[in-house]
Amino acid sequence: MSRPQAISLMIVVTLLWSMAGVVTRHLDTARSFEVTFWRSGFCVIALAFALTLTRGPGLWRKLLHPSKVIWISGICWSIMFTAFMVAITLTTVANVLIVMALGPLITALFTHFFLHHRLATTTWLAIAVAALGIVWMFLYDKDATFSMIGSLVSLGVPVAAAINFTLLQHIGLDRTITPDNKPVQDMLQAVLIGAMLSTLAMLPLAWPFQASPHDLGLLSLLGIFQLATPCLLVVRLTKELSAPELSLLGQLEVIFGVTWAWLWAGEQLSIHTLSGGLLVLGALVANELFRIFRRNRAERLLR
């Protein structure tokens, strides 16, 4: 895959991710936990089909005895799947996506405190600016309490993602690749386990089901094309693009998602949400650009 093809495909991934909010706003009767149940359930079906097709029946034998790394990652994925959809039903799409965008900075903090990775001054500055942006979003919000509850739930997504990455680095990421660069652990199994755990956890809370056939059609769209397909594509793209590049391109989800919610779901952005969100996104983009610049400069010095 060429570099322009990889970048274009990552933009497609962010477009797929970004449709969750606007699609959820067009549901008829399904609410909260049931929305999460059906989305995760359809994701399980799609991933099971795709992975069985590519991995063969041996996939299911391996799932009976997953490693500790796979289990930890799967639990984190389940929290991410669940917290995101519940949060979307509690606050605006913009609030959820902006809070989720904190993921790279939370991960940087976790690796600093738990793995003793050194953080650049620009990263500390980005964390401070992003935190200021989040505070500004809610400082003058007339529905601050309502927005805060949904945003706190959505915070589970970047926190779980940060725990996932940090723990994998600490206990197993170095052992998921053999000396000849072949994967020992199939991390897509973790995504499948996460979707299964999310579905099972939501089942008793979603009962009795109220989703209409119209709702089931939309939720199957989310499970297959907004969740399962991007997961498969991102794993492939990790072989083509660096982590900072993936993180930087991933921020397009916020722009796309907020735009769709504004155009097709009638969600209006307050001036405080807009200015606070711009602070968060500006801090993230600037930090990732500095990381890419530092990496390229280090590579040139080594030549």
TrEMBL record:
Keywords linked to the UniProt accession: Membrane, Transmembrane, Transmembrane helix
Residues annotated as domain EamA: 6-138, 186-285
Any one GO CC term of the record: membrane
One of the Pfam families matching this protein, by short name: EamA
InterPro entries for the chain: EamA_dom, EmrE-like
Entry keyword annotation includes Transmembrane helix: yes
Listed transmembrane segments: 36-57, 69-90, 96-115, 122-140, 146-167, 188-210, 216-235, 271-293
Transmembrane helix is among the record's keywords: yes
Highest taxon of the lineage: Bacteria
Designated name of the protein: Putative permease
Source organism (scientific name): Desulfocapsa sulfexigens (strain DSM 10523 / SB164P1)
